[in-house]
Write a structure and sequence with these properties.
The complex is a heterodimer of chains A (about 675) and B (about 80). Chain A is an alpha+beta fold and about 675 residues long. Chain A is built from 27 helices and 19 strands. In chain A, the strands form four sheets. Chain A has a seven-stranded mixed β-sheet, sandwiched between helices. In chain A, strands 11-10-9-12-7-8-19 form a seven-stranded mixed β-sheet. In chain A, strands 13-14-15 form a three-stranded antiparallel β-sheet, with helices on one face. Chain A is globular. Chain B has one domain: Roll (Ubiquitin-like (UB roll)). Chain B contains two helices and five strands, in the order E-E-H-H-E-E-E. A five-stranded mixed β-sheet of chain B has the order 2-1-5-3-4, with helices on one face. In chain B, strand 3 and strand 4 form a beta hairpin. The longest helix of chain B has 7 residues. The chains are: A alpha+beta (about 675), B alpha+beta (about 80). Chains A and B meet through helix 8, helix 9 and helix 20 of A and strand 4 and strand 5 of B.
């Protein structure tokens, strides 16, 4: 229970739409969400698959707790083979699409093939259609969604996931959009959707979602909701966090914090609340990972302060089932051609702020909406722009290459000009539209050292030189370059040892130096983070909810109440180990050498920074990765051992018998 | 005597808490007493947020054995 037991499969080449009923045994072994996806894609995507070809499968998956009454359960994922990294690809998103999948009666929708002409998939009142999207192709993601909502309004608005022009032009750093500003951004999932000529998925259903023990879910949600509601407002102005960040940078020990208190920061500012703390303590990368807070000091950082950002906020935005509401809708009608935008996230703010030495806050608001509409990943776009600026600075590219654009750190006009070229694939934008790694391969001239990525995925705005746990996860995850999976800070806040007794409790006064060691203890913590995130992504839970700690949001409690499987927390973590290993195996099947996914040297502190809170810090990420792989039961090169596969029951993916029936109509 | 646990940023760490964050206090102690041992005094203690067992507390809230106090947590992300 918690799952519907059905998936929808769509073959766009053959115009074939099929509903498949899956046995309970699949859910007991893999749960739903990313677990179900790891099973299905491992089985169905052939070896060495062309990620932009018809054999790649694009999945839209919902979690096992979504729709059951669990709080923070509004996350959905797009899954596929990534054309950006050629590995397992996925992107996690909030908004309102997750419950819509379940309300149509499915746990997941999987699409393969390529449509002859642009189409959109519509699931409405239990019927499934492939519709002509010719009038929508070329429109941005916000316009597309508005049109489709109007067209298919039936007592309520449908939920829409769609692509913008970046994905139509197969930019490998494009994503899939929902709710006008939530985006499944990473792995180039948008490019896969664009390559299939699939413009949108529109869902309008009202089937109920059943949990095994609704009462138990409601009880946990009530307690959690009451705690969150009771939290006091955060009275300090954001400059207090700047001071806190400076003090934090000087401490010798790590901090273990209770994430419930962070909800007041999130409610007040959203994820941007921590930007000045992060700049001062070294968490935020600056100047393409080659700078520090000394390069983005004082007045500059105050110009992009969270207090300034929320002055534009007209209303709060909550994803489905979220009692916290870190989002917001901001008025920007005085800045340019757009009236409103979703409040920028921390990643967007840092990536187009300190990473590019840009203190023009209005430009960041504008860029936020520009890229939301184009459907382009802000992290990768900024990382690629940073690469280009550094190449320009070093004379590797010139005005001749940029059609007269003079690229400079902090020059918002040229940054926007370059982004427009990338969205339209014009001039040098055609090279940059596929990310910094591919650009460096084309531009050459030893420029690859300025492309700061892991396996082709640009690194997010959390510096592993400050928290080496990030560096580990950027480098070892089957989806490289991810900040939303684990770090030593996250491990401390998850507090999993309260439920999984074999996991080490973090000592409050752990010296920071211990984080920079390839130790078994560090590897155990990183493994636990990977596994816990697999559980959260199988459940459909939001990272900002689980970050409060298992003593507040008990993921195991929610899972057990939703499914009634009778598993202990340790058994759920073993399922997660299975999911993680299956994703790694997927990569091996696709010809990936895990060692090649290790993050860029500069991000590890090679060479070390000479100034700032990360001065002199070096992360031995290769050794830490080896230790992680060993603890996972994989070999020193990251390849799962046969013994591990046997223990997890995945040495052969069984060919299950699915009940199958054809559904769907085509109006093309 | 009572034993409580405190989760707080490293800037407040001192010898009043052990390696797992436990602090021993006199029976009848209130939150202000615990914060005083961490050198969190007026005016700082007026403005930062703290919870006891997940719920907001006042400086005069009584403590009991096994309570968990959280002080001023900001986890970055997103």
């Amino acid at each position: 229970m918690g799952y519907t037991g059905k998936i929808l499969t769509v073959n766009l080449s053959e115009n074939r739409i099929t509903e498949k009923r899956l046995p309970d045994s699949i859910y007991k072994k893999y749960l739903s969400g990313i677990g179900l996806a790891s099973y299905y894609l491992s089985k169905e995507i052939p070896e060495f698959c062309d990620p932009l070809g018809p054999d790649n499968i694009l999945g839209f998956v919902s979690g096992i707790c979504t729709g059951t009454g669990a709080l923070f359960s509004g996350r959905w994922m797009a899954v596929c083979k990534s054309p950006l990294t050629n590995t397992w690809g996925d992107a996690n998103c909030g908004g309102n699409f997750a419950p819509a999948i379940k309300r149509c009666g499915y746990d997941a929708i999987f699409v393969n093939g390529i449509a002859e002409n642009p189409v959109y998939l519509l699931v409405e009142n239990g019927e499934v259609y492939l519709k002509n999207a010719g009038d929508l192709w070329g429109k941005d993601a916000v316009e597309t969604e508005e049109l489709l909502k109007e067209r298919h309004f039936l007592k309520k608005n449908p939920s829409v996931a769609c692509i913008g022009r970046a994905a139509e032009k197969i930019s490998l750093i494009s994503g899939i959009c929902n709710e006008g500003g939530r985006i499944a951004a990473r792995s180039g999932v948008g490019a896969v959707m664009g390559s299939k000529n699939l413009k949108a998925v529109v869902l309008n259903g009202s089937k109920p979602v059943k949990a095994y023990d609704t009462k138990r879910i409601k009880e946990h949600s009530k307690t959690l909701g009451n705690k969150i509601k009771a939290q006091k407002s955060f009275v300090f102005p954001d400059i207090a966090l700047k001071i806190f960040g400076k003090l934090d940078a000087k401490t010798k020990n790590t901090s273990v914090m209770d994430g419930m208190l962070t909800t007041s920061v999130m409610k007040k500012w959203g994820t941007v609340g921590s930007i000045n703390l992060s700049i001062e303590n070294g968490d935020a990368p600056v100047k393409n990972w080659g700078g520090s807070n000394r390069d983005f000091h004082g007045l500059k950082s105050l110009k992009i302060s969270p207090d300034k950002i929320i002055r534009r906020e007209e209303s709060k935005y909550h994803c489905y089932s979220c009692p916290m509401g870190c989002g917001g809708i901001c008025n920007i009608d005085d800045i340019g051609k757009y009236e409103k935008t979703h409040k920028p996230e921390y990643e967007t703010l840092n990536s187009f702020g300190p990473l590019l030495l840009n203190d023009d806050l209005n430009s960041i608001f504008y860029i936020n909406e520009l890229l939301n509409r184009a459907g382009m990943d802000t992290i990768s776009a900024a990382g690629t722009v940073a690469y280009a600026i550094e190449c320009f600075e070093k004379g590797i590219i010139t005005e001749k290459d940029t059609d007269g654009l003079i690229l400079k750190w902090g020059d918002s006009k040229s940054i926007i000009g370059l982004l427009e070229k990338m969205i339209n694939r014009e001039g040098i934008g055609d090279i940059l539209a596929d990310g910094s790694k591919k650009a460096s391969e084309i531009i050459g001239k030893n420029s690859e050292k300025y492309a700061i990525h892991a396996g082709g995925q640009e690194l997010p705005a959390h510096d592993g030189r400050h928290d080496p746990g990030y560096a580990v996860h950027y480098s070892v995850e089957p989806t490289p370059g991810r900040h939303t999976i684990g770090s030593f800070q996250y491990y401390g806040s998850f507090q999993l040892w309260r439920e999984v007794k074999s996991l080490p409790e973090v000592k409050i006064k752990t010296p920071k130096t211990e984080m920079y060691v390839a130790s078994e203890n560090n590897a155990v913590m990183s493994k636990a983070c990977s596994e816990y995130k697999m559980l959260c992504d199988s459940a459909g839970l939001c990272l900002f909810g689980v970050m409060m700690g298992v003593q507040h949001l008990n993921t195991f409690e929610y899972l057990e109440a939703a499914t009634g499987f009778g598993y202990s927390p340790r058994e759920y973590m073993e399922i997660a180990h299975r999911i993680q290993t299956l994703r790694q195996l997927f990569n091996i099947k696709q010809g990936i050498n895990p060692v090649d996914l290790i993050q860029a040297k500069r991000a590890s502190g090679d060479p070390v920074l000479e100034k700032g809170p990360n001065k002199g810090k070096y992360v031995p990420v290769e050794k830490m990765a080896e230790e992680y792989w060993r603890i996972m039961g994989w070999d020193e090169n990251g390849i799962p051992k046969i013994q591990t596969l046997r223990e997890l029951g995945i040495e052969n993916i069984p060919v299950e018998e699915f009940g199958e029936k054809e559904v769907g109509e085509y109006e093309l | 005597m009572i034993k409580i646990k405190i989760l707080c940023p490293a800037i407040f760490h001192n010898d009043s808490i052990d390696e797992y964050g436990y602090m021993v206090l006199e029976e009848g102690a209130i939150l202000r007493d615990a914060l005083k041992k961490l050198n969190i005094k007026w005016p700082i203690n007026k403005f930062i947020n703290y919870n006891i067992n997940g719920y907001p507390a006042e400086l005069v809230t009584s403590l009991k054995d096994g309570d968990e106090i959280a002080v001023f947590s900001v986890i970055s992300g997103g």
